[in-house]
Amino acid sequence: MQNTIMKCIQKNLGILSPKYPIENFCVPKHTLFIDIETTGLYVRSSTLYMIGCAFLDEDTGKAACWHTIQWLATNYEDEVNVLNAFATFAKPYRYLIHFNGNQFDIPYLQNKLQQYNIHFNFDDFEGIDIYRRLSPYKTFLKLPNCKQKTIENFVTATVREDQYTGGELIDIYHEYVLNHDAEKEHFLLLHNEEDVRGMLEIVAALAIPDLFHLPVKVTKVQANYYKDVNQKQCSEIIMNLKLPTALPIDISYGANNCYFTGCGEDGKLRIPIYEGELKYFYSNYKDYYYLPKEDTAIHKSVASFVDKNYRRQATARNCYTRKSSSYLPQWEVLFTPFFKKDYDDKDLFFELTDELKTQRDAFNLYAHHVFEMMGSYRKKSQTD
To answer: Is 371 domain-assigned?
Structure first.
C-alpha cells in the first residue's frame, strides 16, 4: 500500500456567510461549524476519516470571510493525526455549531480522543445543535423530516453537487485507502464540505425557534368581518407583527383556527373572535347559592332576600354568572377573569374589552401566547 499522510485542505467561501445573527448566541470569530465522517456508528469498530470545519477569518487588512478546513485520513492509521490536528486547531475556539452533533459527532469525537489519550475537553465549549433546535418545529415548517438536506432544500434553492449519503461513502473510503483514487477523494471531500457549507445556510432556519422563544412586537391590531363557507357572519382580530428575527422563507401555519403568515421580519396572526354568551365560574362555590330560575349564582351575603324555595347551595358545576360579549381564546390562563362555555369545557376565553383594545403590551403578550399554543399543538399532533 502506498505510504501517505493526512491531508489538510482549506478553502475560502467568499461571500457565503450565515443568514442569521449568530452573535445572538456566540462570538463568530470564536466559533467553529463542525462535521465528521466515519466508517460506522460505533467508536470501537469504526474509523474516523475526516473532520471538516468552517471558521471566520478576520486577518488584519482583509475583509472578514468564512473558510472551510478539512483533515482527511488517507489511511486508517491517520485517524490519530486527524484528531491531533483538529484538537490543536480548535483549542482557541469557544463555540461549536453542528447538526445533530449532540447525538453523534461530539460523543464520537470525545471517545476517540480518549482512546488516543489526546487531551481535549468538549466541556470547554458551548455547543449549538441546529438539529436539536429545529426538530421540534418540523410540523410547523411542514417538513417530511429534519435531515440536513431536507432543511437545506427548505431554506435555499442551492442544489448540492454531492449525490452521496454518508453511509454510501463508507465503501468509497475503504476503496480510497487501497488506491488513493483522485475521483474517490473528490467525492469524500465534497460530501463533507457541502455538509459544512450547508450548516452556514440552514442556520438561517433558527429564526423559527425564535418565534416561540423571543418576544414579538404587535404593530397593529384590527377587527375583520367575513362570511365562512356556510355564509355565516364571523369575526376575527388581525395582529400585524414585527418578528424577532427575519425568516429565511415565507411561512404559513394554522392551529386551533388561528393562522400565522410570515415574510422576512413581518408577520400576521389571525385569531377568531367568539361573540356570544359564556360563563364565569366562581372557585369558592361554597359561598354561593344557585338560582335555578335565573340560571346564575349569587353570593350568600346578598342572597338573604331570595326565598329559600328559589335557591339552593351552589356546586362547582353551577356556580357561575353568564355574560354576552366578545371573547378571544386562550390555552392557559393568561388573562383573568377567564370564561368557558360549560364547566367541563377545556376551551378558555377572555373578554375583549374596550380597555384591553388599547393595551399594546397585552397584545404582545397574547401574540407570544398564540405561538406557544402552536408549539404545543404541534407536539400534540405528533403524539396522537
So the answer is: no
Q: Are residues 182 and 306 in the same domain?
A: no
The Cα angle at residue 337 between residues 331 and 343, in degrees rounded to 5: 65
- Do 204 and 56 fall within a single domain? yes
- Residue 362: other Cβ atoms inside 10 A: 17
Alpha helix locations (H) across the chain? 79-90, 105-115, 130-134, 138-141, 148-155, 168-179, 182-202, 207-213, 354-357, 360-383
Q: Which three cell numbers stand for residue 368?
A: 407570544
- The C-alpha atoms of residue 268 and residue 264 are separated, in whole angstroms, by 11
* Radius of gyration of the CA atoms of the chain, in A: 29
Identify which of 87, 94, 101, 86 has the alpha carbon closest to the alpha carbon of residue 22. Answer: 94
CA pair distance 54, 68, nearest whole angstrom: 4
Quote the CA–CA distance of 170 and 304 in Å, as a whole number. 86
Q: Are residues 282 and 162 in the same domain?
A: no
Question: In this structure, what DSSP letter does residue 58 have?
Answer: -
Return the CATH number at 178: 3.30.420.10
Q: Which residue shows C-alpha cell 410540523?
A: 139
- Domain shared by 206 and 300, yes or no: no
Domain that holds residue 167: 7-210
Going by C-alpha positions, the residue among 136, 149, 180, 200 that lies closest to residue 5 is: 180
* C-beta neighbour count of 357 within 10 angstroms: 14
**What's the total number of domains in the chain?**
2
The answer to whether position 215 is within a domain reads no
Q: What's the whole-model pTM score?
A: 0.87
36 sits in which H/E element? strand 31-38
pLDDT digits (tens, 9 = 90+) for 320-337: 999 999 999 999 999 999
335 within a domain of the structure (yes/no): yes
Amino acid at 1: M
Could you report the per-residue pLDDT of 344-365, keeping only the tens digit for each?
A: 999 999 999 999 989 999 999 9
Residue 251 lies in a domain: no
- SS3 labels along 311-361: CEECCCCCCEEEEEEEEEEECCCCCCCEEECCCCCCCEEEECCHHHHCCHH
